Amino acid sequence: MLRVKRLPIDTYPDNTAFILRRSDGYSAEQFQALRKIRVTGDSCEILATLAVVDDDKIIGNGEIGLGEQAFRRLGLPEGAEVEIAQARRPASLEFVRRKIDGDSLGEAEIGAVIRDIANYRYSPMEIGAFLVACASFMSTQETLALTRAMLDVGSRLSWDSPLVVDKHCIGGIPGNRTSMIVVPIVAAHGLICPKTSSRAITSPCGTADVMEVLAQVDLSSEQMSSIVKKENAVLAWGGRMNLSPADDVLISVERPLRLDQFEQMVASIISKKVAAGSTHLVIDIPVGPTAKVRTQGDAVRLRKLFEYVARHMGLVTKIVFTDGSQPVGRGVGPVLEARDVMAVLRNEPDAPEDLRDHAVALAGHMLDFDPALEGGKGYSRALELLASGEALAAMERLIDAQGRNPAKPELGRLRREVEATKAGTVTSIDCERIARIARHAGAPMDQGAGIDLLHKVGSTVREGDALYRIYANSATGMGFACEFAGEGSGYEIG
Amino acid sequence: MLRVKRLPIDTYPDNTAFILRRSDGYSAEQFQALRKIRVTGDSCEILATLAVVDDDKIIGNGEIGLGEQAFRRLGLPEGAEVEIAQARRPASLEFVRRKIDGDSLGEAEIGAVIRDIANYRYSPMEIGAFLVACASFMSTQETLALTRAMLDVGSRLSWDSPLVVDKHCIGGIPGNRTSMIVVPIVAAHGLICPKTSSRAITSPCGTADVMEVLAQVDLSSEQMSSIVKKENAVLAWGGRMNLSPADDVLISVERPLRLDQFEQMVASIISKKVAAGSTHLVIDIPVGPTAKVRTQGDAVRLRKLFEYVARHMGLVTKIVFTDGSQPVGRGVGPVLEARDVMAVLRNEPDAPEDLRDHAVALAGHMLDFDPALEGGKGYSRALELLASGEALAAMERLIDAQGRNPAKPELGRLRREVEATKAGTVTSIDCERIARIARHAGAPMDQGAGIDLLHKVGSTVREGDALYRIYANSATGMGFACEFAGEGSGYEIG
């Protein structure tokens, strides 16, 4: 028996346990570093990676140190007695191994893997192995099984309505912040739209990151319910809702590995939307040479996969291919994108047109789900709600209901412009490159970091004209961003 | 600038750096946990995973704590000044990503990945992603490129002889400890055979683990050279020689993930053999229903891959398919296998016949490389050297030259027999299951742990007869092994 000691060491997302090398009753051989151990207390258990300590000032004999993450997950107080044992490999790792060998897995097998992942029984390395093995080949059946498994391990929200609409964009296009315009429009119309969004995975920011500039997004299910009851809608971060605990763990590995596979994307999105209680979903798939989806063929393959999985999960979908040839709007990064969104909602004359047009089109598709609006009338209704200021009013009410951010985050203090090296017309802007420069600058962690695009495709520039401005608050971030932009601005001028 | 402090915390194989959350000049946002940082000192640099500490008794303001692994790899004294920065992703991770997407990689790309891996720039998760991506598909060209890349990042040994023989078994068959019989035979004949072996990867023990029961195996290149000069041969652990630093890192991930792909196996073996200075190599591929290679088709595929890569690396090979239908010999585990090997070399009447026959056949193939022995005479020469005691004498000299182990490790104190649940004839023994039971018992870390097979295929047993005896020194290990054996003994009786 060892006594739990909370060690103020944060090793997120890993559970780490610290034990003295010469702790009574345990030999060094038995508990080598990197060996996983099982820590068992009264009716609770976690797996942890073991760090072996040679200094009894850090951890004493008879004690087990748990890092912040492990301490929280075990849920016992300091001094509680636990037993440790060499962890048995989760049995489901055999299925991962079979997947690596090229087998297809059945529903029970995928379910077992996902349950173990959601219960933190896999190391990041093991999760990575599962994801990469799935990336090499995954059948539609497996994708459906993965979706069901992810739904099964999470909580579900339910809304007292036969029509709960939602939209989702698969991402990849910087500045494409339509949700924050679409949701107030459909809410103003009277549809129920409890939108949960993620934070950025591989992009410089997600909708939750941008909404957070304006309002609280870290809401409980109860807060969400009461806001939806009053305002028809909400724009919340989905992570708090435990809608897909497995996905949250998967993302912690997908992010550093920059994995973004169709099958995992479909399973993640559909499981979360069903868990959030949506019945009707518009999915936006931008297609373009530097977007996530680059060819018509890939777009169709992805659409079919979405339709197959959604149909079997009882979700009505409308899938829209949109122009993903360049960033949407001007700003890229939380503060900058919030600025663009509000400019559209406020009908400001210089609000980015492409962002407005794109958002209105999507809102139209969502309004078309309303049986009261006969076929195709959604679009004009959406335009009307935006122009009249009803959408803006709905957004302001949403911000107040969620809790307006008193901090008013500002643009980064450090600014640098990237200039055209020759005169001509902008012929293309590389979405991936712009996204990576904005990430290097510090977005989304640094809310004020990002890129403000001063020219878009078709614009005429002179040599030395500023193409875009980089914002950052840290010199390191600005350094990385400029270095990276120096290797290639992302703009082509012809 | 931060001052290096050595923290007595072992997180092998990860580099871990500990920093106070509120350290001057750094914000929590900049250095979140799991973020990788670059630690740069005077002409040296490492990447490390960051752990954020909230207690200045563990690490003070202005200090950076380096775990044992990281401290050793950075190579600076305590108090040395270093700078830290958010690590830029190794550029070669883009190639890993492309491999995940299904691309084939070129020689320069694989070279870049392997250099970064050998320089500890990848996390275990990233290494796992590379390995699993390669497991899904790898061309022969890529396998050759991987072999060259692994050779290029390591040291090489050279021997003053045009004929340097070696043998390698791909493993998977418990108890198949032929090297320790073959090497003394060919050394007694006068061939140069500087054998480097690995420790167990996924098996209950490797040749280095077994040889270590008898003698020192952790030898420097210099020690190895002087032993080979005197004794023609050596039986050393290859890890110390830095022959394939990349492979050592890869193995640290392959082991917990239990990866064992043909392509990685071929690259690992051929690069190490070339690095060790071998010119002629016998490769033993056991084929059987529970071996690593299960069908004739797979065996042929693997042989062709070995031949292709070896030919391009200038290595002469002779590839032998052997019977991998059941374990070889009786003991499985370091002490038990050392016992069997010595019984064969001593010509003891009850020495395991299958181990002897197998070893003599392989030694014969190696002796056939000697131009002085005309075609096919190797086999009878091998028999002669074993029967005459010359091989035993060579082994005893080798043990003395390497440094006889004064400890004489003994069999595990804890013993349990697994009994036949019915009478009949043993029709098969599952190699994989026997190996896993022996690993659960504690082999190879616990040298005395393992399994002693009391019956082999074809043996007649009564109900209640002991099929095998499990040895262990830890109650936990014995518990796991018995539990696992209880789920299936690995024996079929018909």
TrEMBL record, chains A, B:
It comes from the Bacteria. Residues 425-492 form the Pyrimidine nucleoside phosphorylase C-terminal domain. It catalyses: thymidine + phosphate = 2-deoxy-alpha-D-ribose 1-phosphate + thymine. The keyword Glycosyltransferase applies. The keyword Manganese does not apply. GO terms for biological process: pyrimidine nucleobase metabolic process; pyrimidine nucleoside metabolic process. PANTHER family: THYMIDINE PHOSPHORYLASE. This is Putative thymidine phosphorylase. It comes from Alteraurantiacibacter aquimixticola.
